[in-house]
Amino acid sequence: MKKTYLLALALTLLTSGVAQAEERLKVVTAVTVDGKVVVQNTREIENGETITFTGDGVKDNVINFKAEPNVRVNNKQVPMGFNGTITPRILSNGMILVMVKGYYREFTGYTHLDQGKRSMDMLTDTLVDLTGNPSAVDLGDDVVIEVNSSTKPHNAQVKVTVTRT
Questions:
Q1: Burial category of 165 from C-beta neighbours within 10 Å (exposed 0-12, middle 13-18, buried 19 and up)
Q2: pLDDT at 98
Q3: Which contacts qualify for 117-122: CB closer than 8 Å, 24 or more apart?
Q4: How far apart are CA 91 and CA 67, in angstroms?
Q5: What is the C-alpha separation between 104 and 6, in angstroms, rounded?
Q6: Which positions make up the signal peptide (predicted)?
Q7: Contact yes or no for 122/110 (Cβ under 8 A)
Q8: Rounded CA separation 41/53 (Å)
């Protein structure tokens, strides 16, 4: 009886290990802005795990601040590049649900402001929202989120391809 129980337990553990191994995903991500690839990434993750992108550095939103002693400025660090998350999840029908939330921010310079008792240089940038509706596709098919508009500062695209490892 004990041997049968141990054998059943061992088979269960082996089977669950195989099932978990099948839930590993390979996620290939490419972010393109104005035809130039700004992020290219390949990661192996667990089904449902979120990949976080943290861009390529930060910039101060205010520099060269000059004012009377009691005048303060709200200076903060602004993330640049592609910042966001991508979460792929295998659905019960075998399709993959991909959720993309993020934005691309490009530093364009600083603009000088004189405001009476204070002067400063304020960050100028362009921001492109790259958040898309969740998309369900077959494994191996591309999920593409595009911003193509003459009213936007940039044409941008996030392309995600998910396969099993």
A1: exposed
A2: 95
A3: 117/67, 117/68, 117/71, 118/65, 118/66, 118/67, 118/68, 118/71, 118/73, 119/64, 119/65, 119/66, 119/67, 120/62, 120/63, 120/64, 120/65, 120/66, 120/73, 121/62, 121/63, 121/64, 122/61, 122/62
A4: 57
A5: 54
A6: 1-21
A7: yes
A8: 10
Using an 8 Å Cβ cutoff, are 13 and 33 in contact?
no
- Kindly report the three-state secondary structure assignment for every residue of 4-35: HHHHHHHHHHHHHHHHHHHCEEEEEEEEEECC
Gyration radius (Cα) of the chain, Å: 24
- Annotate 36-74 with b (16+ C-beta within 10 A) or e (fewer): eebbeeeeebebebebebebeeeeebbeebeeeeeeeee
pLDDT tens by residue, 13-56? 344 333 444 589 999 999 998 889 999 999 999 999 999 999 88
Helix (H) or strand (E) holding 160: strand 156-164
Check pLDDT > 50 for residue 59. Answer: yes
> Under DSSP, is residue 2 helix (H, G, I), strand (E, B) or coil?
helix
